[in-house]
Write a structure and sequence with these properties.
By secondary structure, the protein is α/β, with parallel strands linked by helices. It has helices spanning 7-18, 31-42, 66-72, 103-111, 140-145, 151-166, 185-191, 196-206, 220-236, 250-261, 379-382, 384-390, 428-442, and strands spanning 21-28, 47-50, 62-63, 91-92, 98-99, 119-121, 125-129, 132-135, 241-244, 265-267, 274-278, 281-287, 290-299, 308-321, 334-338, 349-355, 366-373, 395-406, 415-417. The strands form four sheets. Strands 1, 2, 10, 11, 12, 13 and 19 form a seven-stranded mixed beta sheet that branches. Strands 8-7-15-16-17-14-18 form a seven-stranded mixed beta sheet, with helices on both faces. Helix 2 (31-42) runs parallel beside helix 10 (250-261) and helix 2 (31-42) crosses helix 13 (428-442). This is Rab GDP dissociation inhibitor.
Length: 462
């Protein structure tokens, strides 16, 4: 329709909704499905992507205008005039940043979706300790300057960072007596005589674990996670995180455009009436009386509630602010991690903040989203430590979502179901899910070595 080709374009779109489709793969749902549809289209597969919503991205959409957000959360009345024009707002429902050297950036490069998106480097990464916010030290220089630690602990932490930077799981000379496949991470911390507070921010703000379960697991993955954080930070400077201008909803839109270029078809506002299964295997999807036939189906859990199970809940609170978060050097964007031990919990609390600098809010306004895994019957009380960091809050939007996972791998039915979004504010766990679905669908690993471009070709806005 953007091509201004008049009635011919409209007729083509009308026909798309009126005929039955035969496609090897059909998709519907959120970002995982959009990313997979783009990847499969690039790989030469015929793709049909259907979405019951009138917008892209499902659960990971960005809501605009602001009036629609008020309606979605049943907030009475209209937004006050002080919040500016409703069209100036693009509010994410799920808080996420991209690791600058992480898996999603590599997927964006592999599929060349970067041509449709602009990114901005997040200004800071912070950790909560003893009721205060501190910048996360992740380099030798920052470790020595940080007020998080005493003088002697700084030296020990610096030695630990040097060890991590030099560590190569393929080179035993870098192990220094540690077996990366057997030695628990708890033992590595003990080797460098690191205290509990340092262990907290290292495991949760650098390695980005949600709980302390990792302490008794082999150290290799934790060391690689810390290396990823440091490498991502080194790429652009201020922090290891990137954020797309105009909101996370731009990501599924970008992959939808990519899919269309490679022959895929995308249908918004398309109701799903029935998944048709024959002899235990999917053969199509029924919508508005017509059948889209397919050999494989990828969808989010909301479309197949009988094939998923609940494993927990996540609470998210979207907060509109008229000020930057205190003690973040007036950053226009940042992430704050509250490690579990600091607030006597089993899982971390996350805060991710963006602003008008990212074209997601009116001038002078900020959007902060707090999230955590629900552990009690009073989730709003659990998230309170994060909200206290944000006060005064102009308006809150609270949601509690079920964490859903597929009951089976989908290899028999050829119905592949993604996991719902967890409480983390990065895309690494989402990318793990995408790679897992890809492997189940194709029988082979997603190979980053086949990328068409190197990461250095990707340059976000300052």
């Amino acid at each position: 329709c953007r091509c201004n080709m008049g009635k011919k374009v409209n007729n083509i779109f009308f026909c798309l909704f009126a005929i039955s489709w035969v496609a090897p793969t059909a998709y519907y749902g959120g970002s995982q499905e959009c990313i997979l549809s783009g990847i499969m289209s690039v790989n030469g597969k015929k793709v049909l992507h259907m979405d019951r919503n009138p917008y892209y991205g499902g659960e990971s959409a960005s809501i605009t205008p602001l009036e629609d957000l008020y309606k979605r959360f049943n907030i009475p009345g209209a937004p006050p005039a002080s919040m500016g024009r409703g069209r100036d707002w693009n509010v994410d429902l799920i808080p996420k940043f991209l690791m600058a050297n992480g898996q999603l950036v590599k997927m964006l490069l592999f599929t060349e979706v970067t041509r449709y998106l602009d990114f901005k480097v997040t200004e800071g990464s912070f950790v909560y300790k003893g009721g205060k916010i501190y910048k996360v030290p992740s380099t030798e220089a920052e470790a020595l300057a940080s007020s998080l630690m005493g003088l002697f602990e700084k030296r020990r932490f610096r030695k630990f960072l040097v060890y991590v930077a030099n560590f190569d799981e393929n080179d035993p000379r870098t192990f220094e007596g540690v077996d990366p496949k057997k030695t628990a991470m708890r033992e590595v911390y003990k080797k460098f005589d690191l205290g509990q507070d340092v262990i907290d921010f290292t495991g949760h703000a650098l390695a980005l674990y949600r709980t302390d379960d990792y302490l008794d697991q082999p150290c290799c993955e934790t060391i690689n996670r810390i290396k990823l954080y440091s490498e991502s930070l080194a790429r652009y400077g201020k922090s290891p995180y990137l954020y797309p201008l105009y909101g996370l909803g731009e990501l599924p839109q970008g992959f939808a455009r990519l899919s269309a270029i490679y022959g895929g078809t995308y249908m918004l506002n398309k109701p799903i009436e029935e998944i048709i299964v024959q002899n235990g295997k999917v053969i199509g999807v029924k919508s508005e009386g017509e059948i889209a036939r397919c050999k494989q189906l990828i969808c989010d859990p909301s479309y197949v509630k009988d094939r998923v199970e609940k494993v927990g809940q996540v609470i998210r609170v979207i907060c509109i602010l008229s000020h930057p978060i205190k003690n973040t050097s007036d950053a226009n964007s940042c992430q704050i991690i509250i490690p579990q031990n600091q607030v006597n919990r089993k899982s971390d609390i996350y805060v991710c903040m963006i602003s008008s600098a990212h074209n997601v809010a009116a001038q002078g306004k900020y959007i902060a989203i707090a999230s955590t895994t629900v552990e009690t019957k009073e989730p709003e009380k659990e998230i309170r430590p994060a909200l206290e960091l944000l006060e005064p809050i102009e308006q809150k939007f609270v949601s509690i979502s079920d964490l859903l996972v597929p009951k089976d791998l989908g290899t028999d039915s050829q119905i592949f179901i993604s996991r719902t979004y967890d409480a983390t504010t990065h895309f690494e766990t989402t990318c793990d899910d995408i790679k897992d679905i890809y492997k189940r669908m194709t029988g082979s690993e997603f190979d980053f070595e086949e990328m068409k471009k190197a990461p250095d070709d990707f340059c976000p806005a300052k």
